[in-house]
Amino acid sequence: MRVLAIDTSGVLASVALLRDGEVEDARVWRSHSNHTTRLVPELQRTLAAAGCTPADVGAVGVATGPGAFSGLRVGVTTAKLLCWSLDIPLLAVGSLHARAELYQLNGEIVSATDAGRGEWYWARYRRDDRGVIELSPPAVGSPPVILAACNATAAIVGESLRLPEGFAGKHVLLDSSPQAGYVAAIGVARLAWRRWKNGERDVPALQQALYVRRSAAEERKRPS
């Protein structure tokens, strides 16, 4: 059983292929908002590296957000099209949940990504015998407010994040970037694999990206 996973929620996009829970191949690249031209070729390269074809894929996992608006639209749409064309299950996974899954940590995990405008997307998790469990849903807020609300022993998991002044040394900040050896799509694939084993399935037509807030363009258009 193979799970093909897509994460286009951040500045760095990635894809991964798992077979029976083990990573066969994973790829990451800086998106530069070129998901429409780059994603499908990277999926093809991933399958080729594992010596298989789309017909060998049993399910598709996709990160649904929060994250980059255009990237999420492309990733979710591509995942839907793959599932419809191959007649295989779709398994939706939260982007922040996938990053928390990358770490074998006990205790509270705060998964965060840069949301621009001086804010973070964030959510709280904890690992138990069922895996990584969500404690609070994804939200957006300023880093000082987020960190002040977190457990003092929480591990902060994020890609290219910096702790604001006054919080350095009070929290452990773990880098989830590829430079630190992590690929977000692997977290997506692991969670999708777990959901598939538990008999869970999502209806492709009902899946939408989770944006949490309006885009800058939508904010400008909003009536005053």
What is the string of helix and strand elements? EEEHEHEHEEEHEEHH
Instruction: Tell me the distance between the termini.
Output: 52 Å
Please count the helical segments. Answer: 6
Strand content: 25-35%
In short:
With 224 residues, the chain is an alpha/beta fold.
What descriptive keywords fit this protein?
224 residues; alpha/beta; Nucleotidyltransferase, domain 5; 2 domains; 5-stranded mixed beta sheet; 6 helices; 10 strands; 30% helix
List the topology elements.
Layout (H helix, E strand, L loop, with lengths): L1 E6 L4 E8 L2 E9 L4 H15 L9 E5 L5 H18 L3 E4 L1 H7 L6 E9 L2 E10 L2 E11 L1 H7 L5 E4 L13 E4 L8 H14 L18 H6 L3
Helix pairs in contact: 1-2, 3-5
Structure write-up:
By secondary structure, the chain is of the alpha/beta class. Helix content is 30%, strand content 31%. The chain has six helices and ten strands; from the N terminus they run E-E-E-H-E-H-E-H-E-E-E-H-E-E-H-H. The protein has helices at residues 35-49, 69-86, 95-101, 143-149, 184-197, 216-221; strands spanning 2-7, 12-19, 22-30, 59-63, 90-93, 108-116, 119-128, 131-141, 155-158, 172-175. The strands form two sheets. Strands 3-2-1-4-5 form a five-stranded mixed beta sheet, with helices on both faces. A five-stranded mixed beta sheet has the order 8-7-6-9-10. Strand 1 and strand 2 form a beta hairpin. Helix 1 (35-49) packs across helix 2 (69-86) and helix 3 crosses helix 5.
